Amino acid sequence: MSATASRPTLEAVAERAGVSRATVSRVVNGAHGVRAALAERVRRAVEELGYVPNQAARSLVTRRHDAVAVVAAEPETRVFADPYFAQQLRGISKELTAHDNQLVLLLTEGREDHARVGRYLAGGHVDGALVFSLHLDDPLPGLVRDAGVPTVFGGRPGWDDGRDDVVYVDSDNRGGARDAVRHLAGLGRTRIAHITGPLDQTSAADRLAGFRDVRAGADPGLVARGDFTSGGGERAMRELLARCPDLDAVFAANDLTAAGALRVLRERGRRVPDDVAVVGFDDMLPVAEQTDPPLTTVRQDIEGMGRLMARLLLRGPDRGAGAEESTATAPDTPSGVVLPTTLIRRASA
Amino acid sequence: MSATASRPTLEAVAERAGVSRATVSRVVNGAHGVRAALAERVRRAVEELGYVPNQAARSLVTRRHDAVAVVAAEPETRVFADPYFAQQLRGISKELTAHDNQLVLLLTEGREDHARVGRYLAGGHVDGALVFSLHLDDPLPGLVRDAGVPTVFGGRPGWDDGRDDVVYVDSDNRGGARDAVRHLAGLGRTRIAHITGPLDQTSAADRLAGFRDVRAGADPGLVARGDFTSGGGERAMRELLARCPDLDAVFAANDLTAAGALRVLRERGRRVPDDVAVVGFDDMLPVAEQTDPPLTTVRQDIEGMGRLMARLLLRGPDRGAGAEESTATAPDTPSGVVLPTTLIRRASA
DNA sequence: TCCCGCGCCGGGAGCGCTCTCTCCCGCCCG
DNA sequence: CGGGCGGGAGAGAGCGCTCCCGGCGCGGGA
Question: Which parts of the sequence belong to the HTH lacI-type domain (chains A, B) (predicted)?
Answer without folding.
Answer: 8-62
